[in-house]
Specification:
Layout (H helix, E strand, L loop, with lengths): L7 H11 L1 H14 L2 H14 L2 H9 L3 H7 L8 H10 L15
Helix pairs in contact: 1-2, 1-3, 2-3, 3-4, 4-5, 4-6
Length: 103
């Protein structure tokens, strides 16, 4: 029986498709680090798991070209656009208090 090989990217996409909570955890982890370029990279990767950029753009009601530009390394999405993208992926923005440790 021949083995089928999948790329790491394909396997990751399948994991996010099967478990959207994992996708949310992934984004939360990226957000904790605070690197905007990493966030755009993560959103590009997740868009593949949620039907591709064209489908995410359609559901977010933004132009696909605009979404590609928004998710580029130089992208700087407005809060409204980011919220629409996340909603198209079945997620939303949330705020949590920072946990402070007492000395």
């Amino acid at each position: 029986m021949a083995k089928t090989h999948r790329t790491h990217e394909d396997a990751t996409i399948e994991m996010f498709q099967r478990d959207p909570a994992l996708a949310a955890d992934y984004l939360n982890s990226v957000l904790e680090d605070g690197d905007e370029a990493d966030l755009m990279l993560a959103l590009r990767a997740l868009s593949k798991a949620f039907g591709g950029v064209q489908e995410v753009a359609r559901q977010a009601e933004v132009n696909a070209h605009t979404l590609y530009r928004t998710l580029s390394e130089q992208g700087n999405p407005e809060l409204k656009t980011l919220s629409s993208i996340l909603r198209a992926m079945g997620m939303r923005i949330a705020v949590q208090p920072i946990q402070h440790t007492r000395v």
